[in-house]
Amino acid sequence: MRVITGTAKGRRLKELKGNETRPTTDRVKEGIFNIIQFDIEGRRVLDLFGGTGQLGIECLSRGAAGATFVDARADACRLIRDNLALTGLSDRARVLTADYASVLPSLREKYDIIFLDPPYQTKLLERSLELISQFDILREHGIIVCESGWDKTLPALSPPYGEYRAYRYGQIKITVCRRS
To answer: Residue 160: is the preceding peptide bond cis (ω within 30°)?
Structure first.
């Protein structure tokens, strides 16, 4: 698992041991960043189910103004901090060890890009989308990038949020939602 491009290009990121965290594959990550490549520079990013931190770190490497990483697992947050240090991007990042549902109501800023990559066999994706809409933490014209299994159908979002487009990478689906 490496940073694709930017100031930390080629840096190898550490991964968590075991099967609890499923890092985004290189093919899917490249697809995501082809989709959002012009939406990153100078933007604020929220990596809500941080895991290894690779999606937020890729954004920071590509010029994002800052990133907030959230994960409920203390070992995942330690790993994110380690990966930020390895890439020299710690100065523009904040790492929170907390459950997504407790963090979302307490966030005091709005984001331009939100990554949602929770465990596939749960309802965390649907619930986090609902809370993001409820607390309205996405800036106007912001995007939410959701990773799920191909067979997952997302619920209709409340305006001004809406599903924009879905992309398939084998058994993985990337759904991009936007705030109009």
So the answer is: yes
pLDDT digits (tens, 9 = 90+) for 109-126: 999 999 999 988 899 999
Show the domains of the chain with their CATH numbers. Answer: 26-179 (3.40.50.150)
End-to-end CA gap in the chain: 34
The 10 Å Cβ neighbour count of residue 174 is 21
Count other C-beta atoms under 10 Å from residue 27's C-beta. 11
DSSP letter, residue 13? P
pTM over 0.70: yes
Tens digits of per-residue pLDDT, 124-178? 999 999 999 999 999 999 999 999 999 998 888 989 999 999 999 999 999 999 9
Distance CA 144, CA 166 (A): 12
Sheet holding 66-71, edge to edge: 93-97, 66-71, 44-47, 111-116, 138-149, 172-179, 161-169
Helix locations, the chain, DSSP H: 26-36, 54-61, 74-87, 100-103, 124-135
